[in-house]
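Thread: Newbie trying to understand structure tokens

Hi all, I'm a second-year student working on a class project, and my supervisor (Dr. K.) asked me to get a predicted structure for one chain before our next meeting. I've only ever worked with sequences, so writing a 3D structure as a token string is new to me. If someone could post the tokens and maybe explain what I'm looking at, I'd be very grateful. Here's the chain:
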Amino acid sequence: MKEALGYFLAVTAAELITAVGQPVLGIFAHIIILMALILRSALAGRQPQQQLLLSLALVPLVRIISLSMPLANIPQAWWYPVIYTPLLVAGVVVIRILNFSAGDVGVAFRLLPLQLIVALSGLIFGVAEYLILKPETMIAELTWQGIWLPAVILLVTTGFVEEFIFRGVLQRTALEAFGGRGIVYVSLLFAVLHMGFLSWIDVAFVFVVALFFGWIVKKTGSLLGVTLAHGITNIILFLVAPFFF
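---
Reply by user tm_fold:
Sure, no problem. This is what the structure looks like when written as tokens:
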């Protein structure tokens, strides 16, 4: 537990460095964390510890890829496939190494009526986060032709890939290592990765939402509802709410 706390603090420090305007130093810090996690996972003696350390390597990788990709001349909506495709591949590689099945990390269709109810929570979360951050819209006008493709991209990338990594792979290994406290640990990691928005209110908000998502996945064994809720949250946040508030 102490080692896991140390890596959480290291990730938090790297995110603070990045947030205060030093992205190169932030990437360097995350690379050091990534290398340390890979090395420690190879040397770890106990299986739950080894699995957790390997899955934790996905966290610095999120920031390394997002900061190092050459995105300047690419439309904003297409940033997400460029960033999230290698992250999805990395997540799949990790579950293959750990011998997890798709069902082990929540890629399953279970309790569909409940999952659809959970998905609707994204409408509330999207409006609430917009009122906190008030970001610029990603599209020029709110039309079906202008919104459908960015919406699908956000649903697949920030919706599925982030939930697959955090509530799927990471939460599975954290629960094995820490029991129920694993949900809190993963939620804290997920929240600190939102420090780039420079809003402590948003970090706290994301932490609460992550706890809710984590609890849902633990109870249902499925990522479906939280994937839809997460995707809808970002669709409202970046595509819809800016035209109404």
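A couple of things are worth pointing out once you decode it. The two ends are 44 Å apart (CA to CA). The mean pLDDT is 93. Feel free to ask follow-ups in this thread.
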